[in-house]
Design brief:
With 498 residues, this protein is α/β, with parallel strands linked by helices. It has 14 helices and 23 strands. The protein has a seven-stranded mixed beta sheet, sandwiched between helices. A six-stranded mixed beta sheet has the order 10-9-8-11-12-22, sandwiched between helices. A hairpin with a 1-residue loop joins strand 6 (133-139) and strand 7 (141-149). The structure holds NADP nicotinamide-adenine-dinucleotide phosphate. Residues 156-160, 183, 185-186, 215-217, 220-221, 224, 235-237, 240, 243-244, 258-261, 292, 393, 395, 421, 461, 466 line the site of NADP nicotinamide-adenine-dinucleotide phosphate (NAP).
Length: 498
Amino acid sequence: MNDPLQAQLPRRDLPILVGGEWRRGRGHAYQSLYPADLSVSAELHAASAEDANEAVESAQHAFATTDWARRRPHERARVLYRIAEGIRARREELAQWQRRDNGKPINETRALVDSAAGTFQYFGAACETLEDSLTPQRGEQITMSVHEPMGVVAAITPWNSPIASEAQKMAPALAAGNAVVVKPAEITPIAALELARICEEAGVPGGIISVLPGKGSVVGDVLVKHPLVRRVSFTGGTSTGRGIAHAAADKMMPVSLELGGKSPTMVFADCDIDHAVAGVLFGIFSSSGESCIAGSRLFVERSIQARFMERLVAATRQLRVGDPVSERTQMGPLVSSAHRDSIERYVARGLADGGRLVTGGARPEGEGRERGCYYLPTIIEGLANSSAIVQEEIFGPVLVVLPFDNEEDLLAQANDSVYALAAGIWTSDYKRAWRVARAVHAGTVWINTYKQFSISTPFGGWRDSGIGREKGRLGILEYMEQKSLYWGMNTAPLPWAA
Ligand code: NAP
């Protein structure tokens, strides 16, 4: 299909935003490629370490000298509402650029744009309704707990859900009165830059936001270690997150880490099979499986395994894998050839370990898909829970299936993972659903649904899936320092000195 952005492609010399100035990055020149056919979406110069230092210093200067942090909450909220409206006004254009960024189907990128708008609106409301507290008086003082902005916050995001990921960090950080330096994944630079323009137009003062597409090992590293950066909010892989946590420990800096997952989906014999099949498919294959919360380990009660798998495999073979421009496409390409190579290595390893390929396991052919980074939805059975592809995050459209005999057996397998990000339960027995939901190790559990999100509900992982929570009204507090105030009400001097 024709690309609706064709007349604007490629974007040449795409400027980045450093300390309030739109200009060429001082790092290497590179091209951002469209995963569906490897055509060039944008040509730009990456941010350099020098740019990162300058952005942090400018952010600190803007934090100290503009009125952003001192504006009353309802005044900052008004700007966030304008950002939400600015995103909505440019919905289609943003969704199309987001599609170019990482190759997600247009219907998905529209949903991500809507989510970004909703996030700014929500944190505008959280900002203007956040209440500090008067704590119970225990002496001749009035005691209060209040919150202050932190200063410069760094937001480091991955390539899989640009704009939504950036909004999830920028909105609460800005609402709290901070300056934010954003480092999107180098390969998906466009959405974050567009979002920053909308923020500026909405009235965020210059210098409060910088956006630095560039290498994590260069730009990200400077941001994490810079003494003026008071908090890092990171979303990405567990090994990168662990490195950031080490660096943060050295400077006693709080971090929030939204990391990887290998989420179990658990299907009981008494489930509604139509719902379960649709939910399992959506849980693993939407976003081509490039989703931290992908339901990538499927546990099916043995008594229905054959029947359930027959339905699931038939439905998987019907999935429409193709052009992200098409409204009908369910799975687009993977983000890059390198990422597809890594998925192919995982599948080969699973088969070498004794796995049985049920469907997929290949690149699709025809309709021009050879030009892009496509991979078929893939299901593998017959592996032990301990095997590498059942334990490691593949971050692609690969589902491993294991049977279980009873709840105890199921929970032992489901909880046997270094990850604990999300889980899904399919059953019509609400007492069982309650038991399993409380016993499974996961930050989010979906019961008879999967991969549904609400900005008003906290999100985050346990163990190797991360530290800290995003979303929810109190998500704004992740970007604030708490302070206690004691107001002396004594009628006489403190007695010790008497
Ligand atoms: P990644 O390699 O860890 O990269 C994430 C971000 O960190 C990128 O912007 C990357 O920059 C940057 N980075 C890399 N090295 C860095 C360093 N030393 N210091 C600072 N920043 C550094 O992860 P990814 O492959 O892009 O994303 C996939 C991973 O993200 C998966 O594991 C997925 O589960 C996880 N994820 C988690 C959530 C969640 O909410 N829990 C959501 C989405 C994704 P460059 O890549 O540009 O060099």
